[in-house]
């Protein structure tokens, strides 16, 4: 049973959140998983219950981490396994033996699912893409928390294999990592208008079908055909390997005017903030059943025009529906024509619309405290009430 303070407030918990650091100083921008752990940790730290949070590195000790270790302490599983009330498995997997140990001492174990694992697994099966060395599907979780953008594709995958119903939980973001890496950039990496035709950036990871560069290229192509003088250049990151080694990609791309007119470049992988600051005015994006992403939030927080089809954050940037290339091209032309006239208002509006997603948002914090209550059996408030508070007044 959860303890309470003298004032009746549930006492703060000792919470661990797993990360899987492979080497010291590993970049926060390799993928979003470490950022996710940090943002969730910050949310719990801002609870009025004053939870104590440790990032638990399941892959062994590291001497250096790319964040403030005083603010977000890191420890190994062995070092902290006896001083946790809750362990949230997020960025590093807990083994079968570790699971048995935690359950024997009464620690609650939560699986926090923030990847489209169904899609990743079927692609591995179909295309022979290595994914698992030794597959272990943990069936000992006390709860499974799934962020909204992967519910549609992966909820049934999680619940069936892990033998437990899933709970949809709020997506959490914070500009802390963005601010850290952008601090040394001109204007802190924020958008500033520049004269002339616009530079378009396409920055999909191009790792699977969920976030791929081809539809954004088609959108940019349509906009270029309609108004060639409006687009100075298109840069496509994480695509050099496609342009060099994929006959199918090359075969399609050669029919684009952008390619024929030498207005598009295919380059390697770049971190978002410095690339935007140096090469971009407008960003075009497309997703397929992954309708929330830190990338969208980073772009909009910095004031860059974002043309996208992410329905769970449709109020951000310039939204077009589903796979509608013509609508996307129209929104791109609109962004090019109008963003500069009110660029400061645009950035303020984007940040206001991002506020409900922040790790410091009171409604979001209350919802996660309600999840902890349910996990521990306290049930001081229903999840329905928490969801109601969370979404009340968030439409912009």
From TrEMBL:
InterPro entries in the cross-refs: DUF2827
Name of a matching Pfam family: DUF2827
Protein name stated in the entry: DUF2827 domain-containing protein
Biological source species: Ralstonia psammae
Lineage, top ranks: Bacteria, Pseudomonadati, Pseudomonadota, Betaproteobacteria, Burkholderiales
């Amino acid at each position: 049973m959860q303890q309470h303070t003298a004032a009746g407030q549930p006492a703060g918990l000792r919470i661990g959140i797993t990360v899987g650091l492979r080497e010291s100083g590993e970049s926060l921008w390799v993928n979003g998983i470490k950022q996710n752990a940090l943002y969730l940790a910050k949310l719990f730290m801002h609870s009025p219950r004053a939870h104590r949070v440790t990032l638990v590195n399941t892959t062994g000790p590291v001497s250096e981490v790319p964040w403030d270790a005083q603010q977000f302490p890191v420890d190994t599983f062995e070092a902290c396994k006896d001083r946790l009330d809750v362990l949230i498995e997020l960025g590093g997997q807990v083994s079968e033996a570790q699971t048995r140990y935690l359950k024997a001492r009464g620690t609650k174990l939560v699986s926090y699912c923030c990847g489209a694992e169904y899609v990743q697994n079927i692609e591995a099966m179909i295309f022979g893409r290595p994914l698992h060395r030794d597959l272990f599907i943990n069936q000992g979780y006390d709860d499974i928390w799934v962020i909204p953008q992967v519910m549609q594709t992966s909820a049934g995958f999680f619940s069936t294999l892990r033998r437990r119903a899933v709970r949809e939980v709020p997506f959490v973001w914070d500009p802390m990592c963005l601010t850290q890496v952008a601090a040394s950039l001109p204007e802190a990496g924020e958008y500033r208008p520049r004269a002339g035709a616009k530079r378009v950036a396409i920055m999909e990871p191009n790792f699977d079908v969920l976030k791929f560069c081809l539809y954004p290229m088609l959108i940019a192509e349509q906009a270029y055909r309609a108004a060639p003088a409006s687009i100075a250049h298109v840069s496509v990151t994480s695509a050099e390997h496609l342009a060099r080694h994929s006959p199918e990609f090359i075969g399609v791309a050669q029919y684009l005017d952008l390619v024929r007119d030498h207005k598009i470049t295919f380059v390697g992988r770049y971190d978002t903030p410095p690339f935007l600051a140096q090469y971009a005015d407008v960003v075009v994006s497309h997703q397929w059943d992954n309708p929330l992403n830190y990338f969208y939030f980073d772009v909009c927080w910095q004031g860059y025009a974002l043309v996208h089809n992410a329905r769970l954050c449709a109020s951000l940037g310039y939204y077009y529906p589903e796979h509608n290339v013509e609508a996307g091209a129209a929104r791109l032309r609109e962004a090019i024509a109008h963003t500069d006239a009110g660029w400061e208002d645009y950035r303020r509006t984007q940040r206001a619309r991002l506020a409900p997603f922040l790790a410091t948002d009171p409604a979001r914090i209350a919802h996660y405290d309600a999840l902890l209550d349910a996990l521990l059996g306290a049930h001081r408030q229903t999840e329905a009430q928490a969801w109601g508070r969370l979404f009340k007044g968030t439409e912009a």
